[in-house]
Design brief:
alpha+beta
């Protein structure tokens, strides 16, 4: 099965100065979005396997696009996240079918693995609806410096029978983090928490 993609969008957010403080290394986040046809739009289906397969396909595609946009090697990725906006002819479970069963494994491959759960968000929305894609460190969920988000929005999507699927990847944490927690240098990467 293959996603019917109407549009792909990739954006990079690069922060160089925060609160008047220059950053020695810019904090960069990329978000890649695919606007896809919802094969279950307008009807109830008990089995959502087609969307599960689409999630697997998009996890790798969108993850690779983010890594390419940041100009990094996969192993240099630090955080990741995923989100979906379902058009009005769909249901919230359509987003869950894309995001949860199989999107994670190919995303992890695209970013050079990752032990932590991939943070996610989902909603129903119309044209131009925005969603914040939550971010967390890919190897250790307790790394507070990487708790963040990036907005995903496509002005002409989702149409009623579409879904906007977004994946985000960073090469850093937030600018000027200073609220404690596990440091990147302390990550063990065994259980996805520490």
């Amino acid at each position: 099965m293959s996603a019917k993609i109407r549009k792909l969008i990739v954006q990079v957010d690069e922060t160089r100065i925060e609160m008047g403080q220059g950053l020695s290394t810019p904090a960069r986040k990329a978000v890649a979005m695919a606007v896809i046809e919802n094969p279950y739009a307008g009807r109830y289906a008990e089995n959502l396997d087609e969307l599960v397969a689409i999630g697997e396909e998009l996890g790798g595609l969108l993850g690779r696009r983010c890594v390419q946009a940041l100009g990094i090697e996969p192993g240099q990725a630090q955080s990741y996240g995923k989100a979906a906006i379902v058009g009005s002819a769909g249901e919230l479970e359509h987003a869950a079918a894309i995001l949860h069963p199989k999107l994670g494994a190919p995303l992890r491959e695209a970013v050079g693995q990752g032990a932590a759960l991939v943070p996610s968000a989902k909603k129903l929305g119309g044209l131009g609806a925005a969603i914040d894609v939550p971010l967390g460190h890919k190897d250790a969920a307790y790394v507070r410096s990487h708790f963040d988000a990036i907005e995903a929005r496509v002005p002409d999507a989702p149409r009623a029978g579409e879904i906007v699927v977004a994946v985000a990847v960073t090469d850093s944490g937030r600018p000027l983090p200073r609220v404690g927690g596990l440091k990147v240098s302390e990550i063990q990467g065994k259980d996805g928490l520490r």
